[in-house]
Fold:
Amino acid sequence: MDGAVTARVVPVGELPESTPVTRDLPVPRSALAVGAHPDDIEFGCGATLAKWAASGCHIHHLVLTDGSKGTWEGSDDPRALVAARRDEQRNAALVLGGGDVDFLDWPDGELEAGATQRRQVCEAIRRVRPRVLLGHDPWRRYRLHPDHRAAGWLVTDGLVAARDPKFFEDMGLPAHRPDALLLWEADEPNHVEDVEGTAETKLSALLAHRSQYRSTLGIEDDEDPEAAQDRVRANLFAQLARHGALAGLTAGEAFRLITDV
Structure:
């Protein structure tokens, strides 16, 4: 063979490139956030959603499980807890700026990244047609909770199914490809959203989940409410400061941004 061989990029096997941290996507027309449990969306991207909602973005929430195991009290009634967490999620969504809330109601702690669940997430993406999709990072190392791992795979697998028209053709919905995927709790963050103006909104949305005060926020029943809220605020703002520092910001939410979707 004469001459030099021209190197070609092949679709599988490329090495990851080191890229700088980017910041602040253009405000999308619509966004769909997919969380394993009620309150996961607020923890993962609440301030970003509040910022976008204030600028006209239509926000959609998809909660995959029923939240029925979200308590440390063995005597709690699971049915009452499910009802409470549904109300809390809707209230939190209103705090962030409104938007639709859908529940798939898979049993808490038993979520699987199976074909049925993937179809449901695909249906939500095709129906909502978000410009930005947000969810758990399935590649996060040392993650203990199985629902968070499964939810991450359902976001990525559901996106692939939603964008390719031959998946679930019987669904009767046209394929949809978002502009970007943002994964929170990112194993390797490469993007930060400036949330200095909506940090308090994120706090208020988290505090809407009253059933989770003890198990998630560390607020005891006999604790002074004002002191407890101040402690949660300090912890939250310290986390946002660490995220923001990746991009030279005072407060931020960090993600893995994927635009090649």
